[in-house]
Amino acid sequence: MRSPGVQLREITDDNRDAVRALRVRREQKRFVASVSKSLKEAARKPETNPWYRAVYLGDEPVGFVMLSWKPPAGPYQGRHFIWRLLVDKRHQRRGIGRETLTQIAALVRADGATELLTSYDPGDGEPWPFYQKFGFEPTGDIDDGEIVLRLTFPAQ
């Protein structure tokens, strides 16, 4: 299912509170940090080169995505890593997460990348099925207890 009208927008003083109010379902909280925590983490770790956007459907913020965009050092040096991806509980199962991933993959690929990475904490209700359907595959690496996944882009 495709959700047309999904846009990635910068987080500004005008929309920050609305974006920070986004929440996942209770059973998902152990898998994804809140927007507030994510923004604080981004501010605390500038060396990870955080890049984040609000996900909009029309004029309404419905999600949040944050990447480590080609950090200059560390385990993901020079690579693109999805650090956070969440869709508000009221807007899930409508194709918004998939469309967000589609747009992120296009941006990363346009930046010259051959792959997009992410990771997840295994457990009941884990996001692996979502990423697997999109085409991600396990790399075989574990990072801080999380399984690292890779989406490989075909040669252009």
Automatic annotation (TrEMBL):
Keyword terms of this UniProt record: Acyltransferase, Transferase
Organism of derivation: Streptomyces echinatus
Keyword check for Acyltransferase: yes
Keyword Transferase in annotation: yes
The enzyme's E.C. designation: 2.3.1.57
Name recorded for this polypeptide: Diamine N-acetyltransferase
GO molecular function, one term: diamine N-acetyltransferase activity
EC supergroup of this enzyme: transferase
InterPro entries: Acyl_CoA_acyltransferase, Bact_Acetyltransf, GNAT_dom, Sper_AcTfrase_N
Transmembrane segments: none
Limits of the N-acetyltransferase domain: 6-154
